[in-house]
Structure prediction request, 314 residues.
Amino acid sequence: MNTIFRKILMLLSFAFYNKLKLSKKKESEIYNVILTKLSTVKITNKNIKKTHLEFNSKMRNIIMQRNLKSFLKISFLQKMFFVHNRFFILLELLHLRKGKWNFYKHLLKESSVGDPVRYFLYPNSSGNTINHVFHLSILKDEFNIKLKSIKSVFEFGGGYGCMAKIFYLLNKNIRYTIFDTPIVNLLQYYYLKSLNLDVGYKNHRFKLQNELSKNTNLQNNKVGALFIANWSLSEVPIKFRNKFLPIINQHQFFLISFQHFFEEVNNFTYFKDISAKLNKRFEIKFIKNKFYKGSIFKKEDHYFMIGRKWQTND
Prediction:
């Protein structure tokens, strides 16, 4: 039923098309890197739930078939990563219009990579990009910070790379680390490399990472460092979540969004508990998402947990 509903919503954007400009030569070069990496990837249930294990298996098949040119039109990828023609997106867009519109308008500009569904009421962007920029506006407004002052980002669960692209529009010198599963890292590589960004697994401005190590976080307590987890930290086992608390502590700001429940876990209780561990170093706010209430098939409250260090030179 969800799949049918998404297809119906996509029809609202039938008049808006993307100009897919990626050359066959460049696409071939990107696939060569991805397929070489894919040959070494083993899909396991370590640190991920059953839902994400099944997703990674499907993602492997899509990559092997070299079927990424229009990956944002694939239903199961949309379900995991992409919001398109939903009414709450209009409310988020109107919220942004009431703010510094010229600033947000620049960030909302959509690319054609992945063949995204354009938002039918604002075709210069997509529902997903509008949603991401709205999230950043919450952090900006609540703490009265300049988003351009953010110098580095660590994103836990980076989707296909949409937030990374937005931060590139904010700051061409941004240092950005995406921590995700090896399979999803490959999708992020395809997307960001197709945008001509400096992306890779070692010394790159956009670094892809899928294992915890002593060097997992490159920010090292620097002012202007942001930790982001949008519906990602809230969807992995508790034991694995807790490993990221020291990493959150190393940032000046954090932005975490989550649903009240995920499978058997009460996320609201969980994040209230970890806020008690973080509040000696951070000013923390819980904000109910006033626009997003889940899908018509599953109504549920969603929240933002945002934080700012009391001492920014810590």
Observations:
- The chain has a mean pLDDT of 89.
- The chain has one domain: 29-309.
